[in-house]
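Data deposition worksheet. Section B asks for the primary sequence of the deposited chain exactly as it was used as input, without tags or linkers unless they were present during the calculation. Section C holds the resulting structure in token form. Section D is free text for depositor observations; keep each observation to a single sentence. Incomplete worksheets are returned to the depositor.
Section A, Depositor: J.P.
Section B:
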Amino acid sequence: MTSEYRPIVMRANRLLGASLVDHNLVRLEDLEKANERLLEVMASEQTRQMTVLGILAYEMKVLKEEDVLQYLVDNEGLGLVDLRNYEIHDELRKTVDVGACWATWSVPFDREEDFTSVATAYYLSPAVRAYWEKQFGTTIVWYGTTLEILADFLEKLETERGPAQVAAST
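Section C:
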């Protein structure tokens, strides 16, 4: 991941962590440890591991990703989407910024007139929502999904595009 995305990675993760604490989904002490680990991961350039949510849920096991998704459904009114068998909208397939998707743990996957559908594991991060709203300037319909589903989807998109096109979009 290029240094261009570092600010949004840091902001997205910081604000997601703060929201998780604010909504009593994780303790502040655990978040502080996860943030330290995130800095180590970022230094090693492991894009798929650059997620405080993943560190809290899968390394530290102090949070279940399902609990975050349930919170989104119950309190934010989001629907959930499984992108594993979903074909991305042709226009978005060609133009979506894969680096930004990794940085925000979100992916625009459909567009219909003035509406863009975005799947995200980071809805609770205001920085992520603001980033995508600014990119599209349309109404965004948000959907929750898991880190694994997003990562698999992005890797599939990178494979379909090939290295030259991914490099050009990041």
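Section D:
The first strand starts at residue 79 and ends at 80.
Residues 6-22 form the longest helix (17 residues).
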